[in-house]
Amino acid sequence: MSATQAEVAVEPGSRASSRRNAAWLRNPDSRFWQTIRAVGMLALFFTAWGLAVRISHSDLFPTPGNVLRGIIELAQKGLLFKYIVASLFRVTWGFTLAVLIGVPVGLVLGWYTRAFQAFNPILQILRPISPIAWIPVAILWFGVSDAAPIFLIFLASVFPITVSAIAAVQNMQPVYLRAAQNFGLSRGELFRRVIFRASLPQIVTGIRIALGVAWLVVVAAEMIAVNSGLGYLIIDARNAGKRYDLVVAGMVMIGFIGLILDFLVRQLEKFDEVRWGYARR
């Protein structure tokens, strides 16, 4: 094969590759542009934050640079990793217990009308009570230990998860049940293969909401009920010399960890059993 023929043979592949590269650059919804928009907005936010502090000549509120130095200081002292692990430990246990109890209870109450009629008043009485209001009771029952915030996180998470599971079953399309009855599924198979799977999209949404609430509650609980964690870091930094750079550093870490946790939960939406229930534009 001559050099000219080789160039002709390679050219179609090169053109196809160039077209593919240009396609994701031209597509405004590609992963590349999604990342650019997110990073650009974060950069704009931190720039506006720094300018606002300098213009106001505030001696109390830190700049992004001061906060970054505070985070580095906490990391060098070994406190940052310790406090993050403590908070995640409490959220993991409380939230996992809420999922393990809230999902099956919600499915049962949503399916059995008489059970729902019996337990719904109790559920609606307990649900509006703020988990923060339970802090004195939690300390009384569990003392200043990890059990107190875990209990509060469980309370904060279990009601949104239960209510979302109940609503998912009650709003289920009747065509699913009729199709299952035509195939002669047993009660157990009906629950496992139809009711649970049809309810998954709404249950995952409830889990995302509950996780955000749980992360809020753990910070509030750690300010009062324990002596470790990111919530404790914030209140301790304020009391010990008014280190507002460390206060805001704790707030920033809480925000970024919350973003990561929400991202992880959203990965559940990519499963085929869940993805079908979400509208795609």
Structural notes for this entry:
With 281 residues, the chain is an all-alpha fold. The chain has 2 domains: 55 residues, no CATH class; 212 residues, MetI-like fold (Orthogonal Bundle). Helix 6 crosses helix 7 and helix 8 packs antiparallel against helix 9. The mean pLDDT is 80.
Number of E-state strands: 0
What is the C-alpha radius of gyration, as a whole number of Å? 26 Å
- Unreliable spans are none
Secondary-structure class: mainly alpha
Straight-line distance between termini: 49 Å
Number of helices: 12
What top-tier CATH class of the largest domain fits best? Mainly Alpha
Number of domains: 2
What CATH architecture of the largest domain would you give? Orthogonal Bundle
The percent range for helix content is over 70%
Topology:
Layout: H1 3-26, H2 31-56, H3 64-77, H4 79-111, H5 113-126, H6 135-142, H7 147-170, H8 174-182, H9 187-222, H10 230-239, H11 244-266, H12 272-275
Key attributes of the depicted protein:
80% helix; 2 domains; MetI-like fold; 281 residues
Summarize, please.
This protein has 281 residues and is mostly helical.
